[in-house]
Amino acid sequence: MNLSDFDQWIQLHATRIESWLEERIPENNVIPGRLHEAMRYSTLGGGKRMRPLLAYASGAISQARTEDLDVVAGAVELIHAYSLVHDDMPCMDDDVLRRGRPTCHVEFGEATALLVGDSLQTLAFELLAKNPLAIPTSKQLDMVLLLAEASGAEGMAGGQAIDLASVNVELDLPMLEKMHRRKTGALIRAAILLGARCGLEDSPLIQACLDRFSQAAGLAFQVIDDVLDTEADTATLGKTAGKDEADGKPTYVSLLGLEAARNLAHSLHAEAREALLPLGGRANRLAELADYIVRRHH
């Protein structure tokens, strides 16, 4: 089957970031070997790589060097991987399947899984801080701050805290949106903005358009996740289907219904595409990724 230009672009960049990460996560034969084995198990060989793809696409808008985008894409993916390891643990979502295979704590034990998350998180900041980029050092420091804010209590971790506190609680739409702007949207926004900030043409117009795009695309990603959790099966998703409903977690589907959730995703998709219009053709890859977000099946 002939792949489209977009599909080829996805394959090229997914392979690129896989190789980049593989070279930077210590090998299993480096002490402590079991920790490194578990870090590699949890990060390599699976996943959509959506956040790295968004970083590469936004970096193209600001004419960033690909080798600089590798650093940003890798750092964001390491944060994402750590969050999945911790989210799957018994004290959080208590899931046994991730990317079609046993979760980290099932395969390696809870103590090792905890250390894997800690190690992947710190490796992300180490790589973002120590790799020289073709931008001023002060700007690189600001990028470290942006990733930290997206990952912490005001971002992803805070969103997870709201999620844990919301089991069997009926949230209204604004609160559900606030939760997911942190839990899912914050890291997606960081990936997009960090990619653009690697470039030399990092104008206020680019930042404003990408900020608006990221807000809409990040929520659309979560809405589609909720739809798929209802419609798709475990084999397709690579994780336990229907688990949010079974655990009494609020979702866009439980609050709005399936059809209204789909309509919301399409509305957010249109908003994301509209946000890119001032950037013209150089934002085509981001626009295609917005299409991919709402049309995906896993």
Structural description of this entry:
The model has no long low-confidence stretch (mean pLDDT 95). The chain has a single domain (5-295), classed as Farnesyl Diphosphate Synthase (Orthogonal Bundle). It has a two-stranded antiparallel sheet with strand order 1-2. The protein is globular, with a radius of gyration of 18 Å. The protein starts with a helix and ends with a helix. The protein is 71% helix and 1% strand. It is mostly helical and 298 residues long. The longest helix has 28 residues, at 204-231. The protein has 15 helices and two strands.
Question: Key terms for this structure?
Answer:
298 residues, mainly alpha, Farnesyl Diphosphate Synthase, two-stranded antiparallel ribbon, 15 helices
CATH architecture: Orthogonal Bundle
Distance between the termini: 21 Å
Mean pLDDT: 95
Beta-strand residue percentage: under 5%
Per CATH, the class reads Mainly Alpha
Q: What spatial order of strands do you see in the largest sheet?
A: 1-2
Instruction: Report the biggest beta sheet as strand number plus sense, adding barrel if it closes.
Output: 2 strands, antiparallel
The CATH topology assignment is Farnesyl Diphosphate Synthase
The figure for the number of domains is 1
**Secondary-structure element series:** HHHHEEHHHHHHHHHHH
Give the radius of gyration: 18 Å
User: How would you sum up the global shape?
Assistant: globular
Q: Total number of helical segments?
A: 15
Main structural class: mainly alpha
Question: Count of DSSP E strands?
Answer: 2
